[in-house]
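Job type: complex structure
Entries:
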Amino acid sequence: MRVKLCALLAIAMTLGMATPSATAQGPVILKVAIVQQIDSMNPFLAVFQSSTEINRLMYDYLTAYAADDQRVTEGLANRWEPSPDKLTWTFTVPEGKKWSDGQLVTAHDVAFTYNLMLNDEVARTANGSFVTNFASVAAPDDRTVVIRTKAPQVTMLALDIPIVPRHVWEKVPSIKDYANDRMPVVGSGPFVLTDHVAGQFIKLKANKNYWRGPAKYDELHFVYFQNSDAAVQALTKGEIDLVNRMAPAQFDSLGDKPGVTRNKAQGRRFVELLINPGAQTRTGEPIGDGHAALKDVRVRRALAQAIDLDALVQRVSLGYAEKGAGLVPPVFGKWHWQPGEQELRKFDPAAANAALDAAGHPRKADGTRFGLRLVGRAGRAYDEQASEYLKRQLGDIGIPLDVRLVSDNQLNEATTVATYDLAFSGWATNVDPDFVLGLHTCAQRPGADGKGGTSDAYFCDATYDQLYARQLSEFDEGKRVEIVKQMQARFYDQVPAVVLAYENALEAYRSDRFARFTTQPAQGGVIMAQNGMWGYYGAEPAGRAAPPSSRGPALAIGGLVLLALVVVGVVVARRRKATAGERE
Amino acid sequence: MRLGVRLWGRLGGAALSLVMVAVLGFFLFRVVPGDPVVSMTRGRPTTAAMQAELRTQFGLDRPLHEQFWNYLTSLLRGDLGTSFTFRRPVSEVILERLGPTLLLVGTSTVIAVGLGLWLGVRAAWRRDSAFDRAATGVSLTLWAVPTFWLGMLLMMATGDLFPSRGMRDTDTAPDFVSQALDVGHHLVLPSLTLVAVVCAEYMLVMRSSLLEEMHAPYLTTARAKGLRDDLVRRRHAVPNAVLPAITLVFLRFGLVVAGAITTETVFSWPGLGLLFYDALTGPDYFLLQGLLVVTAGAVVVMNLLAELLYGVLDPRVKVV
């Protein structure tokens, strides 16, 4: 009797499992893999890249970057005008834009958001740098926002601050303790947050009130993966529809997979080799233990000349990168700088050898000049492989490398307190180059207590700083572009770091479920990690006929496994009885 | 009276261990390299003032002895602090992950213990048989295989049959049966990986301790009494041989709470092991401290239980 019951239960479970949980008539869902945790859904506190990407979907900013060419375009405001003295900016919030709960978006929402940040230190946690120069913000009527700045600021159209609804947030007693998880979360972006289970998934629904029109599918789910190999596997199995941050080998492995389309995009990231130029704090005190020889720019230039950047691109990045030069990657076309024939440092070990001799570092009897430490991150394929090439190439000019591949935290610590000679680093850049340029100014070095710095290159150069200040107040874009290029040329010439490569962003999606995605920029752009929400918003389903990954057969097999286990158990039990009987 | 003293002695020992764990937890993770504020804000436009504000929010701007005192007093109140990474109370974050971990590691441990002990008993009873050689060989091979590699291999080998990640799909129907079946479906690969890797431990311990009993005179007596071979094994040999395995089982149950970092990482299973991994990348001091206190506390409590249970399982322990 018990056996029969077990068998019946197993069959019932099998049948239950065989029923697909999501039917073909269900909502069209785009499932995206994310590999980074979400720190907070509160846009004033969220600092992780993954969190800010979700915030971009939930909230509009004052202005946006167009999908096709990344020019500044309409966000919540559709017009803006600086005063003649460039100290007052007037933005117009047009009529007709609504929050996801149906209430109208007004200039008061914008003023409320910025004033909250000006008045509450906690609200400045994530995006405080954008309002540092603000003197006041006011909304004289429903349509007009007036921002007064302390000094002219050219980046006023690059304020990456999510605008929150005043009617919701004015009731929040403490920003610090507010998780912003009252679902559905009221926002103005193309999607509305409806569910978030930490470490598992985030669910958003298309915002039917979105002023550009609702997305062409129903729901957007982000599912959390701790490891990118599993994410790639999940894509090939059809469990997810979109994945990014792939390694070159993973990207290549998807080349012949049916139903999968790859997107090799120009990335926003560059990788660099830091050369400790004699690190100092903001107050001029030496910090760290960089090799003294590296203070000499001639030595730094010689090192840079001995590195074969083409070989690194071809052999380490497997061709999925472009050769490095200036601080702004080529994806941001007008700001990108390439050295002219006069400035270009060609790979030339003989010239590097001669330069080191001239700089007073002749080879010793054993053929070496001086040794250097190279710090990189263990487990990051680029660091592991590139360090081998650098070891050989710098060894050829008499500089043996002591390579130390360490944990992410150890690497961060070494660069934060300048206990390195050479180190791998890299940054993601924005449409406006101010952030990456500002990182390398004297002010970004740490304070006397060794804290508060954001630079890891410890570059401090008066010429560069003067150019930085000039570009920040240059409102003629053509002139500003010129200054930005001069800054990159100066950085290249002084070599506090060698920009090794601009990495491609390697992405792939299920083209049998989603026919196309909007990339930014239109040519060679990315789908995920954009300066905007176009990639997700512009996704077009391949057709409703394609069911959302039916798991029926798989579940049935799961049930069958269970059934098999029960049957084996029953057989063993019966056999055991028989054996006992026979032996008796 | 003597029993009472011994019991209090053991309880006192366990309490002392917990206090030491709490103290160690604070200083151990302060030695982990890296500045949590720098890690959090890297790659964002950040000013020195913003970094200072974050330090103030997390209490990292205070002297170490003050941080330690705050930590101890909060701990006594049951407050484990606020996680930097998740910006929520540590106890809340840990509690949320406890269920998935207990489900995965608990299920796997129960299966591995049952299967391992059964295989161990069978293998020892039929020493040098084909079954013994096959069971020992396969178990040892799986024991030697890296968990990460085995997990990835299973994921690839099973194709579409089982999901690659997590505990449930995002589009499963919300009713209980669908959710339960979905969780069961997701549980298969990670628990199979865990069982395959740790099963050999129990099997080998059980096998070797039973082999030691195989030629004991009391078994001959039992057989002489006319008992079936099956009963001789079950009622006489196994109870005497099972003590070392019980020690191991209790130790393992204590570690259930610690999760299985590698398996949880491979399958993105949202348990405490994965949480530990995420906390270390910060480093998220409060979360790490909380996790250490909870996991080490579980081991201490299970050890205490094991010690108390020995007396029940084997009267000889009481005499000693």
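Summary: The domain at 270-503 of chain A is CATH 3.10.105.10 (Dipeptide-binding Protein; domain 3). The two ends of chain A are 25 Å apart (CA to CA).
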